C-alpha cells in the first residue's frame, strides 16, 4: 500500500529515540498518521513543525497498518510566525484542534483547503482571529454540527439576531430571547450574516466561546477528550484582552 | 536464552538507553562481563555513587551532588543574568560553549499541545518566583527554535511582564560553518530577516 499526497503537519509525537509518529492533515486521505524515522535529526527538526506544508509519501504493508511517511517540505509556514506570540498561538491552536476533532483517515478536502486558507490569513492578516472563528464554524459544519445563524429559531426573523441556543445551535433575536437570555450564548456581530460588523476583543472572545461550546458539546465531551491546551491559551489571550483592551 | 535471566534483564535495561538498541546493549554487556575488574566493578560503584549523591538543584534544576549546584553556587557568575533552557542537556551544551557567565533555569521540557504538557508541568512557576524575588536584570530565553519551544518562550515572557526584567532570546540563523546551499528555507528566511550591518 502506498500513496502520495499534500499535507499539513499537525503534530509530532516522539516514538523511541529518533523516530516519531507524525500526524498530517492530507488533502485526499484526511487526518493520517505514520511513522517518521529520523524525525528529530538535523533535517527533520525544521520540517515537522506544526503548520508546515509537506509533500508526503505514505507506505505500509497493509492498509490498516500505521505505515511510514517520507516527507518533503513544500512550504515552511511555522518559521515566519515564531516571533509573533498571538499568531503562533493561532497556528498551534488550529493544528491541535484539527488533530483532536477529525477522525482518522476520513477524507475532508474542504477542511484541508479551509485550513490552508486559515494559515494564509494567520500569516498575512492582522484580523486573523476573525478567520479563525469562521474556520471553527466551518469545521463544525463539515463534521455535521452546523450552527444556524441565519434566522431566529423562535420568530423566524433575520434581523436583530443576538444570541445562540446552547442546545440547538440556532440563532435567537434579542426580542425573542426574553427571560431566557441569561441561558443563551452571545452571538458576536461579525458572525451575523450580512452585518459585517468590525470585531473588538470582546467579540472575538464571544466567537471563540461560541465555537468552543459546540466543539466541546458535540466532539470533545462525547469522546472524553479535553479541549487542546493550545486552544485554551488562545481563548485566555482574548479573555485577557477584554479586560486590558489589547491583544 | 543463552544469556540467562540476569544478563537478559541487564541487556533489556541497557537497550532502553538512548543510542543503544538490543544488539549494542548485548555487546556492551558482553564487554562488561569480559572486563569485570576494569569495567563492571568500577561502573557499579560509580552508578551507586551517582544514585546516592546526585540530585536536582532546587534553584535551577541542574544535576549535581550539591544543592545549590556548582553553577548556582559559583560567586564569579553573574546572578543578574538567567538563561532559561528546556533541558539539562541544553544547559550542558551552553556550558560547553564557555561563553555564558550567568546562571540557568531548566524548565524540564516545553509546552506541547499534542503531548498535553501545560505550564504547571514545567518549572515555570519556579522561574516566576525566582524573578519575583529580585536580583535578576535579564532573562535569556534559550528554548528551541520550534513551535513548542517558541510558544513556551512567549508564554514565559508574558508571565514575566509584570516584573522589571529584560527578556531576550537567542538569535536564529546561519550556523557557524553553514553553507546556504544546504540550508532549509526557514533558516535562510530567519537569517535574512535578522541581518546586521557590516562594520567597515
Judging from the principal axes of the Cα atoms, what is the shape of chain A?
elongated
- Number of continuous helical runs of chain A: 7
Cα(first) to Cα(last) distance of chain A is 47 Å
Number of strands of chain B: 6
Largest sheet of chain B: 4 strands, parallel
Shape of chain B: globular
- Highest CATH level, the class of the largest domain in chain B: Alpha Beta
Strand content of chain B: 5-15%
Order of strands, main sheet of chain A, comes to 3-2-1-4-5
**Rg for CA atoms of chain B:** 22 Å
Class per helix and strand makeup of chain B: alpha/beta
Oligomer: heterodimer
**C-alpha termini separation of chain B:** 71 Å
**How many individual domains of chain B?**
2
Structural category of chain A is alpha+beta
Mean pLDDT of chain B: 92
Report the count of strand segments of chain A.
8
Q: What features would you describe in this structure?
A:
Chain A is α+β, with helices and mostly antiparallel strands. Helices cover about 40% and strands about 20% of the residues of chain A. Chain A has helices at about 40-45, 85-100, 110-125, 130-140, 175, 200-220, 230-245; strands at about 1-15, 20-25, 30-35, 55-60, 70-75, 160-165, 170-175, 185. A 5-stranded antiparallel beta sheet of chain A has the order 3-2-1-4-5. Chain A has a 3-stranded antiparallel beta sheet with strand order 7-6-8. In chain A, strand 4 (about 55-60) and strand 5 (about 70-75) form a beta hairpin. In chain A, helix 3 (about 110-125) packs antiparallel against helix 4 and helix 6 (about 200-220) runs antiparallel to helix 7. Chain B is an alpha/beta fold and about 200 residues long. Chain B folds into 2 domains: about 5-55, RecR Domain 1 (Helicase, Ruva Protein, domain 3), CATH 1.10.8.420; about 65-195, Dna Topoisomerase Vi A Subunit, Chain: A, domain 2, CATH 3.40.1360.10. Chain B contains 8 helices and 6 strands; from the N terminus they run H-H-H-E-E-H-E-H-E-H-E-H-E-H. Chain B has helices at about 5-15, 20-35, 35-55, 70-75, 90-95, 125-130, 145-160, 185-195, and strands at about 55, 65, 80-85, 105, 140, 165-170. In chain B, the strands form 2 sheets. In chain B, strands 4-3-5-6 form a 4-stranded parallel beta sheet. In chain B, helix 1 packs across helix 2. Chain B starts with a helix and ends in a 7-residue tail after the last helix. Chains A and B meet through strand 1, helix 1, helix 2 and helix 7 of A and helix 7 and helix 8 of B.
